[in-house]
Design brief:
With about 100 residues, the protein is mainly α. The chain has one domain (about 5-100). The chain is about 45% helix and about 5% strand. It contains five helices and two strands. It has helices spanning about 5, 40-45, 50-65, 80-85, 90-100; strands at about 20, 35. It has a two-stranded antiparallel ribbon with strand order 1-2. Helix 3 packs across helix 5.
Length: about 100
């Protein structure tokens, strides 16, 4: 599954939680009841193999650093994807743009 097959619209994306169920309770990204994901949670679901996850993570990082350099160091350490996703300026449209440009 590709990321945009999962994050099909604004209601299927969230900030601050890997995944939420219909009651807005936090669940794991692969939980059958999950209905929305952050970018990192969506990555975990779509790329469960570590080698696939990290290769594609690095593709996202390259795009984020280029397009949104001001959004990847928001006191979340080195996890640039999480920092970008959870930044107050990041919108669903920004996430889609990064995913599209990274080819994921």
């Amino acid at each position: 599954m590709k990321l945009l097959d999962l994050l099909t619209d604004k209601t299927r994306w969230n900030q601050h939680y890997w995944a939420l169920n219909a009651n807005r309770a936090m669940v794991g990204p692969s939980d059958p009841g999950a209905v929305c994901w952050c970018l990192s949670g969506a990555m975990q679901l779509c790329y469960p193999l570590a080698s696939d996850y990290w290769r594609n993570y690095n593709r996202l990082v390259d795009v984020i650093k280029e397009k949104y350099p001001e959004r990847h160091n928001c006191q979340i350490g080195e996890n640039i994807v999480v920092a970008f996703n959870d930044d107050y300026r990041t919108t669903y449209e920004d996430v889609v743009a990064v995913v599209r440009e990274s080819g994921l």
